[in-house]
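Newbie here. two chains, one complex. Structure please?
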Amino acid sequence: MDTNSPMDTFTIAGRLFSSRLMIGTGKFPSAAALRAAIEASGSEIVTVALRRVDLNSPEHQSILSAIDPKKQLILPNTSGAQTAEEALKLARLARASGLEPWIKLELTPEPRYLLPDPIQTLRAAEQLVKEGFVVLPYIQADPVLAKRLEEVGTATVMPLGAPIGSNRGVQTKEMIRIIIEQAHVPVVVDAGLGAPSHAAEAMELGADAVLVNTALSDARDHGAMAKAFALATTAGRMAYLAGLGPQRSLAAASSPLTGFLFNQD
Amino acid sequence: MTFEAYLNEWPETLVQEQYATLSERQVEAALSADRRTPENLLALLSPAALPFLEAMAQEANKQTRRQFGRTVSLYAPIYLSNVCGSNCLYCSFSTVNAGKETRTTLTPTQIEDECRTLAKEGFSSVLLLTGDAVHAAPPEYIAQACTIARRWFSSVAVEVYSMTQEEYHLLCTHGLDGVTLYQETYHKPTYLDMHRSGRKRDFSFRLEALERAANAGVRRLGAGVLLGLYKWRVDAFWLALHARWLQTRCWNSTIALSFPRLKHTPSAFNPPFPVSDINMVQMILALRLFLPESPFYLSTREAPSFRDKLLPLGITAMSAGSSTRPGGYAAPTSPTLEQFQIEDVRTVAEIKTFIEKSGYDPVWKDYDQAFTEAVPKQLQ
């Protein structure tokens, strides 16, 4: 399939997307920089931390002014929440303010590495699904947790490649491979992707999409880096669809040592 | 084990011995380390690191940007009271300062006026302060102030006397999410010499206070030393040990650092160990490299030109348009006693413009009321 054709779309909760690159909006130096990144990325899903915005009084808010709701779905996230109850409160407030009932669950009880709490995430996901939310949970790359979340009805799973902001790439590769193999919902690799090659690697593994923030906000040229990530995401997707050659752990020797066993004379 | 017992494992003689023997090679190793150890930190704080300040600055800038992005949080202090029951040699609020300026404790209406004025400026994060006076500003009074402030701001912290866990919990149920409490100095003999009388004289009770606050549910902790009271290389190291200790024991809480430097003090008091600009920069850089995830606060105590230069070196939060006297926002000309004279007198708008021109996004709101324990119904 040609990834540039409109055929290579993917669906979350019945909604069609053609861009497989999602953007986080934190850490940018200005609304203009964020806008440049969003536009160059072609992204259709942009996530916003509810703790950073006051949905009731939009003055003083550079983040929301950078998003064009006609082109991008605003995906509110619960970053900063430490318990399921806090995440539920945030999600309900976001929906009450008029946003679509989509929520990226981020439950990070320790503020240093911002690693997700599996127990609180599962609890919150179950409740939010019951309340009719489209739930996209940020999780440790844990294949069993991914299945548990799928069972309670989340729309995706979003395993981390490495800690948020670490730029270390897909450190959890083996586990993400298993998650992708078993998933019946889209798998979005979120966090840790610090270079376009990391995004390509995640897509080559068969991820449905990737989410990037720090790598873009920390770039000298935000738009150019966003474009580079968009191209890498597409390249990785194309390679996955084209069928990558298997990796061999042994070399295929051109002068075999056991060839004599099969020689005719 | 208590933190005080742990602190005693790093006596000053041991720290000084390290400073005397550390070489440039150990500084280079500390600079290139990934996660840094206390030994790495000693190297970065040592005199041997002075030729490496630029390399440290580049690395500190990179780490801060990776963790916090190009953003600076803005906050404002609100002085609730300048009545004080302690005698701290360096402080204007001290009981022995019998100046003519008024001592006062704000009424609920006055607190509301201060909040309204600051909220109009755009603030979403405030720090409530009092003197060390339980009689004038008891925990119940501070709890009431938290309730009022929470109507206006998404994040409310206090910088008051050290409390019991129950008292901190009371404040949490009234909307508190942060506690800032400087140990002033971790050098006990100096601490006792500086704090001649009053509740604050209890070194250990103060030293354990941030842990009590975290156990009560406080999510943002702020630590610091009053620069100038003791040798900064020693106190900064002990401060960093305290921050690391809190990070692993109070793992749900964020540990922030501030760098208050004594400048304008009551005339009879001269800081015994003055801290120069170079010292201050080395300290901030070394601490940033040791604690890459900690928010670093910088108040209006420092001059505008110096604050501007410190911003890219690891600072992540700044106060703006501050007043250090009770009622100073709603009634700027009131003759009440201020705690210290601020040097950065720029308006909030001027500081916001400066931050933007420096390539940073000023962040007003970085917390949500959803994270703070629900206020009991009868108080809403």
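Moderator note: Chain B has 15 helices and eleven strands. The interface with chain A takes residues 65-71, 122, 124, 154, 219, 247, 251-254, 293, 356, 359-361, 363-368, 370-371 of chain B (CB under 8 Å). Thread marked as resolved.
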